């Protein structure tokens, strides 16, 4: 495995606020890394920085060893595919046309072939000819994931890839992402579901206020101490038949340190 996505001491601000703060991240080829953290922790910012959509004002972001600022849009597109958190599609195109947008450098026929293969990979081939404006939110989410898969880029940057999907589709998508990593891609995915992150990712990166609070294999990253400090959860892991299960309750005090008494206390 070789480092593919690297970020050293990165700093970035949005609206005057530090959204990346001395952030170090490394994702190797063949790795599925899950980014977790509370709302606003900086997960999307991290992913957008690797997609070249959020400039860093300090530190450096590299794709396959090259400073992202030195790469042309085409070179970036060959190295990373990006699934945005926003699932809006402006035009009512058939799904196959939307998925084919992931392969803009191919001739139409080859792009359609790639798009169909990507749709089939996430069990959405039956949607190929349907207009995306006439789809459910979860169906549209699958089409956008197929667009990212159709790129054949060396790394996948996917922001909440299972948001809005039914439970079976969530497992299927995570299986596919893991399979792509095992086949040699570098996969960086933001997830809110901690048990699924622990089950499918090789490594979990916990973000808190733009900083990396933990970066390790799932059991070492998602410790009861981290779950309490970062997420405000009183939690422990239990061995389940299909992987780790999280038994969690609210701590009755938000993670910012202020205290809230439980009702009736
Ligand atoms: N366009 C923007 N302008 C100003 N601040 C922004 C903008 N987008 C995001 N932020 C702020 O940047 C911080 C990080 O946001 P980011 O979207 O990276 O968090 P996140 O961890 O992905 O959150 P979520 O789980 O809610 O998607 C938050 O404090 C957010 O309010």
UniProtKB/TrEMBL annotation:
Residues 256-265 have a biased composition (Polar residues). The keyword Kinase does not apply. Residues 5-234 form the ABC transporter domain. Keywords: ATP-binding, Nucleotide-binding, Translocase, Transport. InterPro entries: AAA+_ATPase, ABC_transporter-like_ATP-bd, ABC_transporter-like_CS, P-loop_NTPase. It comes from Brevundimonas alba. The keyword Lipid metabolism does not apply. Pfam families: ABC_tran. Residues 243-265 are annotated as: Disordered. Part of the ABC transporter complex HmuTUV involved in hemin import. Responsible for energy coupling to the transport system. This is Iron complex transport system ATP-binding protein. GO terms for molecular function: ATP binding; ATP hydrolysis activity.
